[in-house]
Amino acid sequence: MSGSDTIQFQEIVAIGRRHMIKAAICVVVGTLAGFGSTYLFEKRYQSRAVLNIPAAYFQVPLVGDLVPAAHDPNEYRSQREALLRVALSNEFLEELGEKFGYFLYPKGDPYRTVEREYLLKRIEYVGIGSNNYMISVGARTAENSYNLTKMVLERMISTLVEERLARLTRARTAIQNNLNQLKMEMSRSGLSKAANSNDAPESLEVEEARLMSLQNQYTEQHPNVVRQKQKVERLRAEKASADRKERASAKTKVPGENSISGSHRALLDMHDELLKKLNLLNIVIDMEKSMETYTYLPVIEDPSIPAIATFPKKRVFAGIGFALGLVLAVLLILFLELKKGTFANPTIATQVFDAPFLGSLPSWQFKGTGTLLLPKKEK
To answer: Can you give the C-alpha Rg of the chain in angstroms?
Structure first.
């Protein structure tokens, strides 16, 4: 370390020692002021919940080829966020505002829209990871925050379920309309009798699909699974018996008797395929409506009553007060030292500005009562 550096460091230490108590008082006062200011602000509490919306939500196992689903992860995310935004409709916001007393203006007032938008900003849903969304609502009390978050979470789940059922119902309506048109065409072609013979309510393939779906939800010993197994076994036995009878009749059948043309056979096959898909959709819709808990929308974290306010945070405000107190202490020390003339010392000025000392102006103190003005010369 050079000599000038040593002198500068010693001077700084000396200045710090002279004003140590003043600096400490500034820092302590600033910290206490920052900590105490937290009691001047209105407290805010924020409860949160985490909802998982997996890709399986957009897929239907039994009729996946009928209900379109996205394949791009970004498209999935866009659909999720759009559905969550649909859940926060104006009607739902009105219900929240009326229940928790957020609205001061009556319905129809222009400021009511502003209040509704302010309430909407309190509701946050942020994507964390690929499928999870954190839902949180801020409020003045911990209980209100919990109740608001719970209502918002339930609303979002119900909206997602309704949208999924609506997609399935639209697909079922489209299939039913096509099936009705096809039946009219077959009736004009004289195939209505053959079509009606294929409209059996009990289809082995449909019941096997129902059994597979039940096995995915329950154990093998569940009563619903046991009954469905018995039904499938009965239908399999009936199908085997019908196949044997058909093979026996085929041997004695006269060629060309009751034959169906290729175009008519295509109509019958199309009719059977649409009827099968319609039955599968009915199964899926009935299962969706009978669900008590929606396994494709798991709640990762339930809302809870927050124990600590999110605003104002005492540690943050105390830290800000500490920093301001430190800045105030430095400014106070500089002011006192400048007033004292510490930085006007020629030696320190030479080292600080790296310039040679040329000299100083003499100081002269006048003592006495006379005047310093010289008398005027007479002309």
So the answer is: 42
Is the distance from CB of 323 to CB of 27 less than 8 angstroms? no
For residue 295, which phi and psi values (nearest 5 degrees)? -65, -20
Q: Which residues contact 310 (CB under 8 A, 6 or more apart)?
A: 44, 45, 46, 138
Domain definitions of the chain by residue range: 3-41+317-353, 45-249+262-301
DSSP codes, 318-354: HHHHHHHHHHHHHHHHHHHHHHHTGGG-HHHHHHHHT
Looking at residue 362, what is its pLDDT?
67
Find out whether 35 and 318 touch, Cβ atoms under 8 Å.
Answer: yes
Decide if 296 contacts 56 (C-beta within 8 A).
yes
CA distance 292 to 271: 34
Q: Please state whether beta strands 123-128 and 299-301 pair in parallel, antiparallel, or not at all (unpaired).
A: unpaired
Q: Which of 358, 360, 332, 181 is nearest to 271 (CA)?
A: 181
Interacting residues of 229 by C-beta distance below 8 A, sequence separation 6+: 211
| Tokens of residue 341, six digits | 């003339």
From the list 16, 26, 29, the residue with the least C-alpha distance to 337 is 16
For residues 141 and 150, the answer to whether their CB atoms sit within 8 Å is: no
CB 31 within 8 A of CB 318: yes
Please state whether 349 falls in left (phi above 0), alpha (psi between -120 and 50) or beta: alpha
Which stretches in the chain have pLDDT values below 70?
1-8, 60-73, 189-206, 216-217, 243, 246-247, 249-264, 341-349, 351-353, 360-379
- Look up the pTM and report it: 0.65
Say if CB 281 and CB 63 are below 8 A apart: yes
Strands (E), the chain: 45-52, 123-128, 132-139, 299-301
The DSSP secondary-structure symbol of 101 reads T
Q: What is the pLDDT of residue 316?
A: 93
Sheet with 132-139, edge to edge strand ranges: 123-128, 132-139, 45-52, 299-301
* Cα 295 to Cα 54: distance, rounded to the nearest angstrom: 10
Residues 216-241 pLDDT 10s? 667 788 888 888 888 888 877 877 77
Length reported for the chain: 379
Query: End-to-end alpha-carbon separation of the chain, Å?
Result: 68
